[in-house]
Each structure stands twice: as structure tokens, then as C-alpha cells.
Amino acid sequence: MAGKLKNGWKGRDVISSLDFTRESFELLFNASEEFAEGARARARARSDLLRGKVVATAFFEPSTRTRLSFSSAAAKLGASVIDLSTEVSSLAKGESFSDTLAMLDSYSDIIVLRHPSEGAALYASEICKHPVVNAGDGSQHHPTQAMLDLFTILRLKGRVDGLNYLFVGDLRYSRTVSSLLFALTRYKPGRVTLTSPPALGLKPETRSVLVRYGMSVREEQNIERSVESADVIYVTRLQKERIPDQVEYQKLKGSYRLTEGLLEATKADCIVMHPLPRTEELPTSLDASPKAAYMRQAGFGVPVRMALLSLILGVA
Ligand code: NCD
Question: Which one of 85, 194, 235, 246 has the largest count of C-beta atoms within 10 Å of its C-beta?
Fold first, then answer.
């Protein structure tokens, strides 16, 4: 439970957003502010903060933003990045995951891991002496995405508490959705509404975690109705790679979409977020709208990960 969790960051593993208190998040966001746009001069002055440190990235699943924003964050702070290129490493010769992790651990100061299997990051943290950061494992946890999502909300809406949140899309297999919902249990959100095709509703185990922390969510099938009162709309793509049945995937493909008409029906100061990559659920015709926050959200990945690396490595 939150009460037993520590607030500090030094030397910590980052496995689930449930491992963190509101105080930890606030420490991170204060540090992120220093590295964000507008405080660039200060960030530049501190660019050797991680000189001599080695950040290892090991991505067993595709990634653009998470991998590159971690690498960019490390580079901006003067650290070196070593990347386990999974296709050309000795994994291809049959080396085990645990031996691979042991090598990463001996060559680096922190390991950033993405893996298709749930529990992979926790397993890695048990093997490695150095901190392990979960950059997404399975369909439940992607804690650093939840952190940059919260930072985006704070930056663009000024607060997290009291806002109405609407989650749209594949809520069953999107780990960014469950991770952000878990992180929101540390706050006092207003109404939390879930809109998805019935087959893509929140997993019962995710819902029971929310219930355990006293967070109520409601389902609303009618997207026209659900967009009206939202302050933050969080859209996700259909997680093709995690849908077990391709016949089912074909049925669900294109089953939800945030249209221009729906965007017009939202509050004037509503923001639309998306972890990206997008497919057809978020048409590019929405990009010019001031409500479209997803590109700025992706950009915040760098300052938040700069803060995260510096706090964990004990230099912030
Ligand atoms: C997400 C992920 O990997 O879960 N991507 C990301 O990190 N921004 C979302 C997705 O793949 O849909």
C-alpha cells in the first residue's frame, strides 16, 4: 500500500507506477521542470550531471519514443548509452535472458528494459544489482509513460486533481492506460470514464486494483456522450500484437476513432493525449487543433526521463 512506500528515488527500480507515492511523483515533476523547455539554459549548465555513467537500453519489443527519449535524456546529461541490439546480440546464438541481463548489469549503471512478457522487469530487477527501469512489459505496466503523462497534464492543465478523464480505445491491452490509471490512484481525479468496444474493456484485474485503492471508474459506450464533460481525453491504438486472435483483430480494427465532429463537442480547454504510435483512431486532421496535446506529450518524455535518470543515479 502507498503508506509503506518510500518517497526517495536514489537507487530505485521502476517496475510499476503503483510502487510510487504522490510525493515521489512530485519530486520527479519538480526535477523535470528544470529540464523542460523554458528552463533550457539551466539544463545546459547541468549537462555533465551524468558524465561517466553508462545507461544500458535493452528493447525486446519495437519502440521509437521510449528508447530514443531515454537515449536523448542520457546524452543530454553527459552519460553514455549502450544498446543491446536484440537481433544481433548473442541472444541470437541462444544465450539466456538471465545471462544477458547479468552482462548488462556488469557493463552499466542502470538498465532500461522493454519486454513483451509481463513480469520481465521485476525478474530483471531481481537479477541485476543496478537499478532496472521498466520501459513497458506485457499489457499492464509502462510506468515511465504514466509519469510523462502526468507531467503533461500538470504542464497543460495546471493540476491532476479534480479533472474529468476519458480513456478511449483498447483499454484491455494498453499498458499505458493501466499505468496511468494506477498512477491516478495517488491523486484525486474527478470523473474517470472508460469508452471502448466491449471486447476491449479494462481487464478485471486492473479494475480490482483501482477498486482496492478506492478509485471509481464508469463505463460509457456512447462516445458522443462521454466526450462532452472530459478535461483530458486519452486515446490508445488497438494493440494488434497483443490480441490473441487475428480474426478478432480484423473485427475490431477501425471500431473506434476520435473524429473532428467529436473534438468539436468537447470542452474548449479539453486536451487530447495519446502515447503514440497512432493508427486510424487518431486522424492527422486533428493535429492542428490546440486541443491536440500528443506531440507535446511525446516531447515531455525527454525532460521527465532526464529527471528520472538523475534522481535514480543520485545526482539530482
Ligand atoms: C506505447 C507502448 O509501448 O505501450 N508506446 C509508447 O511507449 N509510447 C503505446 C503503444 O504502443 O500503443
Answer: 235
